[in-house]
Amino acid sequence: MSFINKFGKTTLASSILAASVLGTTHVSFASGSGEGNQGQQGQDEDYMAIGNTKNPKNVIFMVGDGMGKSHTSAYRHFADNPDTKEVEKTSFDKYLIGAHQTHNDDEKENITDSAAAGTALSTGHKSYNGAIGVDTNKNKLKTVLEQAKENGKATGLVSTAEITDATPAVYAAHVDDRGKKDEIAQQFYNDKINGQHKVDVLLGGGAKYFGKDNGNLTDKFQKDGYDYVTNKDELANSQSDQVLGLFSEKDMPLQIDASADEPKLADMQDAALDKLEKNENGFFLMVEGASIDKAAHPNDITGVMSEMSSFDQSFQKAMEYAENHKDTLVVATADHATGGLSMGSGDEYVWKPEAIRNMKHSGSYMTKQIVDGKDPEKVINEGYGIEFPSKQMDKVKDATKALKDAQDKAKSDDDENVAKATTTLQDAIQKPINEASHTGWTTYGHTGEDVDIYAQGPGSEKFRGNIDNTDNAKNIFDFFSGDVTSNQN
Questions:
Q1: Long-range contact list for 230-236, CB < 8 A, 24+ apart?
Q2: Which in 25, 176, 443, 453 has the greatest CB count within 10 A?
Q3: Euclidean distance between the first and final Cα of the chain, in Å?
Q4: 3-state DSSP assignment of residue 197
Q5: Which cofactor does it need (predicted)?
Q6: What is the pLDDT of residues 40-89, one digit of tens each?
Q7: Catalytic-residue membership of 33
Q8: How many of the other CB atoms lie within 10 Å of CB of 206?
Q9: Where are the beta strands (DSSP E) in 172-308?
Q10: Distance between CA atoms of residues 101 and 370, nearest Å
């Protein structure tokens, strides 16, 4: 496996951050994992008033990609009011209900990637790293989104990554390798259930996989009645109940670096809910804060906290929606943790988020600007909100020169030496903010610890305690089971 593929990084400005399948496998349902209904935050009487008190009509499933326990702990301090002695709780803390285990079923690696983890979350089956909706024998697995569509529900996928990336892909595509993004996009259009497209709302990045080089899929979706939108205003003005929104060629920018005309995760989620809730049978919506992972891979603490804030905004809105729609279940979790983030490094027992709060741009953004040919010193001065040591500036300039030399010698866009030189440059850019905040990292890849689950609404008690990642899907299958005969093409 190459350096680039291993750590999810790609080369040059476009990528600093980082066969047909057959058969059908049936899913066994999970039993409730705990007693009582505490996951509804003491609102049992409200749930008796309206809505389904046993099974949810609507499910919003949120994935903070790469969001480990250290990420949520660090975010609590980052979001804390510095004028009070108390460390205030975040919106996540109120709804903490359990955790799930993240290990995969891979002969070579027992720490999961997003594809294997997503397959577990969407199908209820563990698989190998790189698998998109298929088992270890590469047989197709039914997903909870597909079950929702069979049941006559509306469906949606929202992500800050390419909409063909692993986490959204596992809900509506089936390929043996996550890298087959053209094929994933084709399946989004071609595969139908009961004569209908699987996904009614598709919002994220990845426009390159829907254009003329892959069959002009945007045109085909529009001919079938979908609105096609490319910015925040167009999304807000979309009138169709079905929409394809592609807001960047590849991954969407981090929130701290995004322009005003680019929708935030919360904007995309709001738009999706406005459309999906019109279906009288209910809906299933997956919302991915993908860029927590995209920022953690290159150890970009500024980017990670920016994306935690973005995910928090969406999480709060989802929970507010559930409070106002008593037949809606919201589950928020992660697929895995990324980066080995630690609150504290070196000899001092401190972590100082105020330095991160003062940053104007992410390390990833500054790296991309320099790779694109901008002057390193100008980029650093515009992006940093704390003092950048002159000796470290010299190291950034040296790393910039080394990257340029690697680019000049590269024979392909995925040259490994270019990727390594890009990483060296980004590390040099981020060293001062990591040191000022006392942030530590152990890896550019994923780590294998359990991740938290937050939930509210009917059925939330089934996610209580320490469960397996596959139980997330099994519980949702249980909620959706048995109302419509499958007629999947």
A1: 231/261, 231/262, 231/263, 232/260, 232/261, 232/262, 232/263, 232/267, 233/261, 235/203, 235/263, 235/267, 235/268, 235/271, 236/267, 236/271
A2: 453
A3: 34
A4: strand
A5: Zn(2+); Mg(2+)
A6: 343 443 433 344 457 899 999 999 999 999 999 999 999 999 999 999 99
A7: no
A8: 25
A9: 192-193, 196-197, 201-205, 227-229, 243-246, 283-289
A10: 39
Q: What is the DSSP code (8-state) at residue 254?
A: P
Residues 6+ apart with CB under 8 A from 485: 150
- The residue among 122, 112, 177, 180 whose CA lies nearest residue 147 is 122
* Alpha-carbon span 53 to 59, nearest angstrom: 14
Annotate 18-69 with three-state secondary structure: CCCCCCCECCCCCCCCCCCCHHHCCCHHHHHHCCCCCCCCEEEEEEECCCCH
280, with CB counted inside 10 A (0-12, 13-18, 19+), is exposed
Choose the catalytic residue: 70, 114, 122, 159: 114
Written as six digits, the tokens of 441 are 């990292």
> How many C-beta atoms surround the C-beta of residue 214 within 10 A?
17
**Structure tokens of 261?**
């005309």
Q: How do residues 448-462 score in pLDDT, each as one tens digit?
A: 999 999 999 999 999
Per-residue pLDDT tens digits for 313-339? 999 999 999 999 999 999 999 999 999
Would you state the structure tokens that stand for residue 146, as one six-digit string?
């597909």
The SS3 assignment for 337 reads strand
